[in-house]
């Protein structure tokens, strides 16, 4: 009788604790699962298990091993093709088209709170902290300027029990490659993107892994995984590479000799029927200075370095006592162009910028090696983790839980939306992309330009068929998705500004300059 009364008192106490955070519910009597939340910055679909660059083998043995034991979403997309708006949207659960947090940078501290829709919103880590979890973080989870130039952090300190190296400086200092190597003679360094002492460089550093910032982030996370915590934990680990500068130890470059580098397949004048993103000059500088192979080599080397750091994390996790009761998710904040669409880096609404690796392993729920090619969004991470942990979803979330998808991978999902505010075009403008299972639809309301790509026959997104007669119903369906997401969006009739459309639906940019 006494044992029964004690059980009732414990349950009542847990309900009371949960009630004070506005989420009164009977707790699960099973032990609450831990959460290992891993972000890898700027990682596109070149990883081995996604084979996004089939002409060249990218060495990612640890990612591939994790994929083999997880549920893999092969059609996952970011809400924004830039670090700050994407990470803020993912972690708050509020899409930046609704919050207004669309800019690339906001400076130091949790300045995203300045947006009215985010002022009092319960963030992902805050949700679990408020329900008794121990919240631990390291590295780049929220946006921070790329080290070593600006040791900033948009982490909100109150939401974390501990953050490494600090909630005010979210990433350790990173040693640079030798200046004479990353600013070599024979290259026009005066006109290079980022300037003569800037951020946009590549080449091997002259130190071992142990001197790299990501090594220390993973070291700290490994230590946390070896400890007894006494309560469930939410452990967020942000691996900074392969974010630029693409500078990692020599041994990773040795895996990709320059003579073996395969450049991405591109189409001449690919932007003639598409949006000119204002970054063609960057790609042209790379080509004119004979740096394209080196850029691809350096990005590939940085991917493999990040994979090696992930391997160290997975080793500690798999050997820990928590492995059997921990949900593990791995995601990247956006993709990366390596010359496709005459672009280097991200900041576009095409597949190369928006498609990301997304892996989820939930004990007792996911099937090892299962895959889904249905469209999903990184906005779905917050509701999925809440659902897996057995809590009711907060009402502010714009994403949807993927738990049903984890159980039935091929169940159909609705299209997902990516939006971006372009700031370096002739005139600042906003664009929106809808990715369904087969199509990518893009709309730029400021210039009334539409793009449509059929991935069944055009996976490279080379041919814009938005203005073809046969595309009318497809356009209508995808417009309805945008209208549901952006109720104030308006549509204009007529040709897009700066483009011409002929009778066969071929669209061409007026005054297009071919390189």
Q: What are the SSEs and their pairings?
A:
Elements: H1 2-19, E1 34-40, H2 61-68, E2 71-73, E3 76-77, H3 83-92, H4 96-99, H5 124-129, E4 134-139, E5 162-164, H6 179-182, H7 213-225, E6 233-239, H8 250-253, H9 280-288, H10 292-318, E7 326-331, E8 337-338, E9 344-345, H11 351-354, E10 355-356, E11 358-361, E12 371-372, E13 376-377, H12 381-388, H13 403-407, E14 416-422, E15 429-435, E16 439-444, E17 449-454, H14 472-485, E18 499-501, E19 507-509
Parallel strand pairs: 1-6, 1-7, 2-12, 3-13, 4-5, 4-6
Antiparallel strand pairs: 2-11, 3-10, 7-11, 8-9, 14-15, 15-16, 16-17, 18-19
Helix pairs in contact: 2-10, 7-10
Give an overview in words.
- The protein has 515 residues and is an alpha/beta fold.
- The chain is 26% helix and 16% strand.
- The chain is built from 14 helices and 19 strands.
- It has an 8-stranded mixed β-sheet with strand order 5-4-6-1-7-11-2-12. A 4-stranded antiparallel β-sheet has the order 14-15-16-17, with helices on one face.
- α2 packs across α10 and α7 packs parallel to α10.
- The longest helix is centred in the middle third of the chain and has 27 residues, at 292-318.
- Residues 1-28 have low confidence and may be disordered.
The strand line-up of the biggest sheet is 5-4-6-1-7-11-2-12
Rg, alpha carbons = 23 Å
Beta content comes to 15-25%
> Can you summarize the main beta sheet?
8 strands, mixed
How would you state the average pLDDT, rounded? 92
Query: For the terminal residues, how far apart are their CA atoms?
Result: 84 Å
Instruction: Kindly state the percentage of residues in helix.
Output: 25-40%
- Unreliable stretches covering 5 or more consecutive residues: 1-28
Shape: globular
Please, how many helices?
14
Secondary structure class reads alpha/beta
The total beta strand count reads 19
